[in-house]
């Protein structure tokens, strides 16, 4: 006999199933988002399946190998989230993922920022799929509630380009973004992605390009600071903002304009790697929180 309580449980499980995939699928979804980020063009200064942007030491193959190598670790982070692990355990898995990335790329840093941010979102998706948190909470909010103290108290990398840029320019970088629940994803990336996905559903790449430019226009990207200082960051913000304010991908000829901005970043050796990571995170959150998928 089905009781009212069982019916209520069934309804709540169905509602969660609509927005929460199986824990075992989370790593594969995350890796797919990394590949979708790569296969987005034009992305100012960044590597894609079309060209290497402002980079001489990596290409699309390097990024594909990196994404494949870190996928099992992204899944381990999801499993750890489902087991209610704390930041100490997540950090150990994150460092093992970084090691796997460096082995796969022969020492090139392709995805350190993505391992950190996307990894935390995978752990949050695991916690949500495992029923440890309110299923209505966004993934960013789960990260903020469960791990923000551990994120901010974690050991500082003394020798990364990012930490040098943060010391010199007092930028917040990847940790601040994560500890605050990924405001750039929720306030900038997702609205831009969904605006275009709604208007032009057949061109998913256009939606990713719009989200990428919107992110570059506002993120305090430590990679841009590392390569171009304040002037480089300002140039990137202004160029991307100009593209979005002129109508972005809704205006005919947008690809040519986007390509010329891409060329102007390459001419200055600028690379917004943090915004690329945030694009992958935007795609991941969209895959988990879009009610109609
Ligand atoms: C906590 C860490 C993230 C520490 O890293 P770091 O001290 O370096 O901190 P950040 O500068 O804040 O950023 C780290 C990377 O995050 C990306 N990023 C930059 N700005 C932002 C931002 N505003 N918001 C979010 N994310 C951001 C960016 O990653 C991308 O760039 C990388 C390429 O960098 P690099 O090699 O330096 O640059 P190149 O230009 O290629 O070098 P050259 O050619 O000039 O030589 C690439 O990885 C992209 O992903 C920042 O680099 C974290 O690393 C840490 O502590 N990890 C330990 C594990 C852990 O705690 N994990 C938690 C659970 S998963
Ligand atoms: N496509 C890309 N190009 C350069 N740096 C990146 N970091 C993450 N994705 C990137």
Task: Report on the architecture of this protein.
The chain has 293 residues and is mainly alpha-helical. It is 70% helix and 0% strand. It has helices at 4-19, 26-38, 60-82, 87-104, 112-129, 139-153, 161-169, 173-179, 183-199, 204-218, 222-245, 254-267, 273-289. Helix 2 (26-38) packs across helix 13 (273-289), helix 5 (112-129) crosses helix 6 (139-153) and helix 10 packs across helix 11. The model is unreliable at 1-18 (pLDDT under 50). It binds ligand LTSJ6FE6 and adenine (ADE). Residues 77, 90-91, 94-95, 109-117, 119-120, 154, 157, 160-163, 165-166, 173-175, 177, 219-223, 226-227, 271, 273-274, 277-278 line the site of ligand LTSJ6FE6. Ligand LTSJ6FE6 is lined by residues 77, 90-91, 94-95, 109-117, 119-120, 154, 157, 160-163, 165-166, 173-175, 177, 219-223, 226-227, 271, 273-274, 277-278. It catalyses: 3'-dephospho-CoA + ATP = 2'-(5''-triphospho-alpha-D-ribosyl)-3'-dephospho-CoA + adenine. This is Probable 2-(5''-triphosphoribosyl)-3'-dephosphocoenzyme-A synthase.
* Fraction of helical residues: over 70%
Low-confidence stretches: 1-18
What is the third-level CATH name, the topology? Triphosphoribosyl-dephospho-CoA protein
Order of helices and strands: HHHHHHHHHHHHH
- Radius of gyration computed on alpha carbons: 19 Å
User: What is the total domain count?
Assistant: 1
Give the termini distance in whole angstroms.
32 Å
CATH class category label: Mainly Alpha
Structural class: mainly alpha
Count of helical regions: 13
Oligomer: single chain
Gross CATH architecture: Orthogonal Bundle
The unique ligands bound to this protein are:
ligand LTSJ6FE6, adenine
Strand tally, please? 0
Give the strand content: under 5%
Q: Given the C-alpha coordinates, what overall shape results?
A: globular
Task: Summarize the main sheet.
Answer: none
The average pLDDT score comes to 90
């Amino acid at each position: 006999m089905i009781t009212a309580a069982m019916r209520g449980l069934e309804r709540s499980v169905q509602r969660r199933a609509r927005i929460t995939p199986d824990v075992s699928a989370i790593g594969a979804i995350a890796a797919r988002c990394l590949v979708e980020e790569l296969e987005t063009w034009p992305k100012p200064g960044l590597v894609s399946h079309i060209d290497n942007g402002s980079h001489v030491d990596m290409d699309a193959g390097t990024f594909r190998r990196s994404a494949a190598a870190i996928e099992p670790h992204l899944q381990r982070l999801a499993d750890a989230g489902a087991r209610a692990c704390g930041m100490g355990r997540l950090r150990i898995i994150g460092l093992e993922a970084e090691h796997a990335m460096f082995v796969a790329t022969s020492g090139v840093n392709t995805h350190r920022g993505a391992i950190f941010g996307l990894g935390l979102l995978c752990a949050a998706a695991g916690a949500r799929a495992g029923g440890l948190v309110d299923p209505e909470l966004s993934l960013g909010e789960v990260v903020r509630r469960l791990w923000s103290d551990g994120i901010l108290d974690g050991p500082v990398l003394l020798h990364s380009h990012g930490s040098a840029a943060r010391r010199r320019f007092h930028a917040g970088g990847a940790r601040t973004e994560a500890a605050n629940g990924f405001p750039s994803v929720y306030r900038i990336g997702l609205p831009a992605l969904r605006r275009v996905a709604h208007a032009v559903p057949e061109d998913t790449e256009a939606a990713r390009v719009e989200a990428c430019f919107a992110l570059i226009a506002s993120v305090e990207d430590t990679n841009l600071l590392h390569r171009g200082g304040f002037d480089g960051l300002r140039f990137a913000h202004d160029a991307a903002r100009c593209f979005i304010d002129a109508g972005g991908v809704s205006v005919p000829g947008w690809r040519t304009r986007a390509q010329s901005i891409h060329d102007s970043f390459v001419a200055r050796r600028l690379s917004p790697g943090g915004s690329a990571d945030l694009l992958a995170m935007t795609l991941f959150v969209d895959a988990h929180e879009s009610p109609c998928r």
